[in-house]
Amino acid sequence: MEYKLKIGEETTALEVTPRERGRFDVATPDGVCAVEATAVTPNHLLVRAAGRPAANLYVAEAPEGLWVWVAGRAVLVEDADQTQRRVAKRGGQGGAKEVTPPTPATVVAVTAEVGQVVAKGDGLVVVSAMKMEFNLTAPYAGTVTAVNTQVGAKANPGEILVEIAPAEEEATHG
User: Fold this and answer.
1) Any idea what the Cα angle at residue 133 is, between residues 52 and 95, rounded to 5°?
2) What are the tens digits of pLDDT across the range 8-21?
3) Staple partner for 105: which of 31, 115, 127, 167, CB 3.0–4.6 Å?
């Protein structure tokens, strides 16, 4: 089965051929690799590639894709075809436009303040999930109009923790 995965701004095509339970051949532009994934828990996978340990992954489903935690970093992995369909549905606006956790989490720090001018990528809230901390950042440049959380609060996907009015160039270019 062919997949187009979007990680950050980069899209990669993969051909995945199941061999047996938890084992796959994955073809990338760089070649074919045998991959084995073993579930430790529903959200914790041990992955081996070409017979060698490759990663200790923690995963969480979110409306926009799959959040994968590798070596303490959270990365959003999206199905590029589904992303294109969502963009078309919204009339051409792409990318996440809300500051919301990808998985149930606890707020451990809030750095955003109402009235603060932020650039795309500025840290706003730090949350802890599955014993890892990660930053929720500004999805675009603008001005913080509301902070809807506080340290110690429980936060779930879809709950908007920080609201941002887009800067003029963001509002006109989407």
Assistant:
1) 85
2) 778 888 888 888 88
3) 127
Contact 62, 102 (CB under 8 A): yes
Q: Where in the chain is the domain with CATH 2.40.50.100?
A: 97-173
Average pLDDT over residues 138-167: 90
2-86 belongs to which CATH class?
alpha beta
The CATH class, in words, for 97-173 is mainly beta
Residue ranges, comma separated, of all CATH 3.30.700.30 domains in the chain are: 2-86
Choose between 61 and 114: higher pLDDT.
114
Residue 65 has pLDDT above 90, yes or no: no
Which residues, including other chains, have CB under 8 Å from residue 21's CB and lie 6 or more apart?
Answer: none
